[in-house]
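Run log // design_07
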């Protein structure tokens, strides 16, 4: 992604449709946190949100929780006893098959 990621510490990718046979490429210097939906079995894939975190921050960034409906990831970023919370959210359009399965 070249200059898009240059100088960024946290990158959030939405609706990636990642699955076992097709994944988002590795980005040098970043760790990846994926949120997969095991209930979805379409050819589009399963992952909705992906968070890329610069490796130098990996020791202070922890996944706090993920939603059982696979709609959000909460991250805790703690440094010098100060915690910053970051959420990624994906809510499927109400007319999508994914949203209907969650009802």
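design_07 sequence
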């Amino acid at each position: 992604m070249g200059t898009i990621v240059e100088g960024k510490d946290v990158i959030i990718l939405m609706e990636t449709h990642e699955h076992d046979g097709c994944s988002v490429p590795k980005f040098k210097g970043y760790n990846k946190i994926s949120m997969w939906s095991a209930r979805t079995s379409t050819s589009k894939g399963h992952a909705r949100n992906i968070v890329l975190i610069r490796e130098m921050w990996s020791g202070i960034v922890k996944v706090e929780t993920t939603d059982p409906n696979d709609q959000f990831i909460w991250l805790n970023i703690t440094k010098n006893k100060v915690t910053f919370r970051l959420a990624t959210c994906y809510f499927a359009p109400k007319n999508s098959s994914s949203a209907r399965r969650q009802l």
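The longest strand covers residues 72-79.
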